[in-house]
Amino acid sequence: MAEQKKLSLIAFSGDFDKLTAVFTLATGAAAVGYEVNIFFTFWGLDAIKQKRGRSFTGGNWLTKLFGFMMGGLSVAPNSRFNFAGIGPQIFRSLMRKNNVATLEELVDAANALGVNLYACEMAMHVLGLEKTDFIPEVKDVLGVASFLNLSEGGQTLFI
Amino acid sequence: MAIHTLDITKEHCPMTFVKTKLKLAQIAAGDTLEVLLTEGEPLENVPRSAKEQGYNVLSVEHVEGNVHKVTIQK
């Protein structure tokens, strides 16, 4: 077997459609034998929160309010055609109707395939988030230097 | 050596690859997996990626219409 190929993704966006792109690439690459790393930062951290709906997650009143407004995976907004939150539900139903994996199914598949999930230490600090606020599959909390080290020798995308 | 089957003819990217990979992970070494898939991306890439990951692709046969059967040994 040839040396394992590697794909590293920086998930900056917390948008439903962009997270769908992140997890489609991640699961597809992992399924064809790539080592896959996803580094979640800023809005992207919403995707790995344990609470998938809205909750007052944060350190003080301001970050708790931000946490509520940002929400988790199941309330992620669309970057376009959001229609006050109805847009992602319309896309979910279109995906189900066309037998295309939904975002939640892709996240489950990523975990089943052993995709490496990492959280950005600095963004967590700003947003008052702890590692315990995230799903247990999150492997570690990292900074830029560690992420660069992990992604070295592979392809990297910023979404 | 058991023979397993997987039908991914109704699946789309990336679940075609995901389901094949997860099924291959489940079966025992030496077992065979028969994957039913459609022409295009799945037919081109499922056998290729199986080979790349060190599995033995025993055959690729045309079944009917645009459906093919890829036999992979773990």
Enter the CATH topology name of chain A.
Hypothetical Protein Ychn, Chain: A
Largest sheet, strands/sense/barrel of chain A: 5 strands, parallel
Anisotropy-based shape of chain B: globular
Structural class of chain B: alpha+beta
Q: In the CATH classification, which architecture of chain A applies?
A: 3-Layer(aba) Sandwich
| Gross geometry of chain A | globular
Uncertain parts of chain B? none
SSE sequence of chain B, one letter per element = EHEHEE
Distance between the termini of chain B: 10 Å
The average pLDDT of chain B is 96
* CATH homologous superfamily assignment of chain A: DsrEFH-like
Helix and strand run of chain A: EHEHHHEHEHE
Number of helices of chain B: 2
Broad structural category of chain A: alpha/beta
Indicate the multimeric state.
heterodimer
Structurally, how many domains make up the residues of chain A? 1
What integer is the average pLDDT of chain A? 95
Q: Assign the CATH class of chain B.
A: Alpha Beta
Q: Give the CATH H-level superfamily of chain B.
A: TusA-like domain
Q: So, CATH architecture of chain B?
A: 2-Layer Sandwich
| Helical segment count of chain A | 6
Describe the overall structure.
The complex is a heterodimer of chains A (159) and B (74). Chain A has 159 residues and is an alpha/beta fold. Chain A has one domain (6-158): Hypothetical Protein Ychn, Chain: A, CATH 3.40.1260. Chain A has 6 helices and 5 strands. Chain A has a 5-stranded parallel sheet with strand order 4-3-2-1-5, sandwiched between helices. The relative contact order of chain A is 0.23. The model of chain A has no long low-confidence stretch (mean pLDDT 95). The model of chain B has no long low-confidence stretch (mean pLDDT 96). Chain B is of the alpha+beta class and 74 residues long. Chain B has one domain (3-73): Translation Initiation Factor IF3 (2-Layer Sandwich), CATH 3.30.110.40. In chain B, helix 1 (15-26) runs parallel beside helix 2 (41-52). At the A-B interface, helix 1 and helix 4 of A face helix 1 and helix 2 of B.
